[in-house]
Amino acid sequence: MNRILSPRIKYLLTLSMVVVGISCSDLKENPDFINPDTFYKSATELQLGVNGIYDDINSGFSGYFYDRYVFECLTGEQIGWEKGPLQYNLGNVNPADEYIEAYWSISYRSINRANAVIEIADGMKDPSNDALVKRLKGEAQFLRAFYYYGLLSYFDNPPLTIKSTKGISELPTNAGGKRAVIDQIYADAKAAAEVLPASYSGPDIGRATKWAAKAILMKAQLWDEKWADAKTTADDIIANSGIQLFDNFGYNFDLAHENQGERMFEGQVSAVANANEYNVHSAHFNPEDYPSDLGGAGWSWLSATQEFRSAYDPKDKRIDATFIESYPTGRLGKVNGQYPMVKWSPTADFNLSRFGGIVKADANPTDPKQLVFGKAWSGKLVELGTNWTNTEKNTIYLRLADVLLGHSEACNESGQGDKFMGVNKVRARAGLTPLAGLSQSALRDAIIKERMQEFIFEQVMYPELRRKSKPGGQPDYLGERINHYITKYTVGRTLKPRDYVLPLPLKELQGNPNVTQNEAWK
Predict the structure, then answer these.
(1) RagB/SusD domain location, by residue (predicted)?
(2) Residue 478: burial class (beta carbons within 10 Å; 0-12, 13-18, 19+)
(3) Which of 79, 240, 304, 516 has a 20 to 30 A CA-CA distance from 66?
């Protein structure tokens, strides 16, 4: 649905005609419509194909980004009151789940598009644009690595394919397990970093850079527990990219600083550029009682718990940008022509229901002590005062803070380098005291906590917690968080091995005999 380029101009997405799963060779006739063999003859045309790969990063009404928000609800830090979010909070996941199927489909559609573009680039004869062709191939390699990293993050053992689909008999396999996927991410990210520029200007702003490619490489190295390699990659980014943390944490999520500073890779959104180019963040994350005439229409399915918000140090400068601390409520009607303002409070009534945690329906609208709420609504994503079909905020996927915390983790686990440097830079920006003198296990715990408070609502905590956890082992951050959630809120759920990895979708298993289900889900 949403374009990845700036300025936001809707390009012709011809690649959707290219990668349809069955090529013309599978048909008895020779139709004269556009296909890869007749269209992609120049770098300009190839760029249209690359645009199509970017497009899925913010695709669909409940597409790539929203599916990840639903997955986050498995941990219990982010909560929802209906449909997917609620079921994931309850641990009710199955291989036929619609969110898993959608995420899987989008990811492999984009990977197949990337495979096609890479193949076309390798055979393209456009000597005057050779450098552009190489760059576009590098973008496709980055995007293939990006999508495969997303699949690795949730499924462990997704099937690997690096050739575009030519016929229905060509089915990928996951026989190589996560090892094969990680090695492919390494190869693609390194190749992309060799040819991609450090930055762009003009209409190309928002495309993948060499530093985004190296960030994906570092994340894969952390997943692979190649600590020394991850440290080296992070060192390179920190020392040579010129990228610095914003002084103001909120700049990561506002409109004025899109595609700048520490924002290393983001999905572009703009309803102004095109009426169909909006995200549904506000619809899913805005406060339940935000007045509809101010733009509050939607479902308000997702928030964080009161306890999670309360865990922040009161001096933490991230609070104001991370959460909605106050807003006008429509629950009590207007007073003197204005909606009363409500403020977040750690002592407000709170429960996991739809209306648990918003201002009481019988609150006195003239008594500030009663105008309080307990739910932790997302300030990172919501655009208060804007109708959800007119949203402009981009979706952030890679930030420098992730690299800095990765550096500290790699140093801590490898015993090499300054293990406090990265995490303390993140904490300094938040206005928190630096860490020092911690043991390896204590710093490991501190980095996890910092990740949670830095990245809540950014679709990364379920993968990060499970990456650092083993069922019944030490450490088991994911199991600890889920068990705490179950106990704290008396949730009818039992921690199980299946909570630590998503199942491969049923449709894939039914249609592809080359794929084996994850062990926990057999």
Answers:
(1) 306-521
(2) buried
(3) 516
- As given in the structure block, the two tokens for residue 265 are 């890779």
- Total length of the chain: 522
- Amino acid symbol at 4: I
Q: Is the CB of residue 223 less than 8 Å from the CB of residue 469? A: no
User: How close are the terminal C-alpha atoms of the chain, in Å?
Assistant: 35
**CA dist 414 → 243, 290, 444 (Å):** 25, 48, 12
Pairing relationship of beta strands 341-344 and 372-373 according to DSSP bridges: parallel
Whether 423 contacts 450, CB under 8 Å: yes
pLDDT tens-place values along the chain, 522 residues long? 333 444 333 333 333 333 333 333 343 445 445 566 667 889 999 999 999 999 888 755 667 888 999 999 999 999 999 889 999 999 999 999 999 999 999 999 999 999 999 999 999 989 999 999 999 999 999 999 999 999 999 999 999 999 999 888 889 999 999 999 999 999 999 999 999 999 999 999 999 999 999 999 999 999 999 999 999 999 999 999 999 999 999 999 999 999 999 999 999 988 888 887 788 888 889 999 999 999 887 789 899 999 999 999 999 999 999 999 999 999 999 999 999 999 999 999 999 999 999 999 999 999 999 999 999 999 999 999 988 888 899 999 999 999 999 999 999 999 999 999 999 999 999 999 999 999 999 999 999 999 999 999 999 999 999 999 999 999 999 999 999 999 999 999 999 999 999 999 999 999 999 999 999 999
Q: Are 36 and 82 in contact, with CB atoms under 8 Å apart?
A: no
| CA separation for the pair 95, 502 (Å, rounded) | 8
Residues 6+ away with beta carbon under 8 Å from 56: 63, 64, 106, 107, 109, 110
Distances in Å between the alpha carbon of 484 and those of 375, 454, 480, 490? 18, 20, 6, 10
- Tokens standing for 342? 């409500």
Backbone angle region of 333, left / alpha / beta, with phi > 0 → left and psi within -120 to 50 → alpha: left
The answer for residues whose C-beta is within 8 angstroms of residue 488's C-beta and 6 or more apart is 307
* Phi/psi at 372 (5° precision): -130, 155
What phi and psi values does residue 62 have, to the nearest 5 degrees?
-130, 65
Residue 520's SS3 state is: helix
The span from the CA of 465 to the CA of 71, in Å, is 12
Angstrom distance (rounded) from CA 318 to CA 428: 11
Strand order, beta sheet including 341-344: 326-328, 341-344, 372-373
Across the strands, what pairs with 364? none
Cα separation, 304 vs 453, in Å, equals 11
Phi/psi of residue 213, each to 5°?
-65, -40
* Cα of 364 vs its chain's centroid, Å: 40
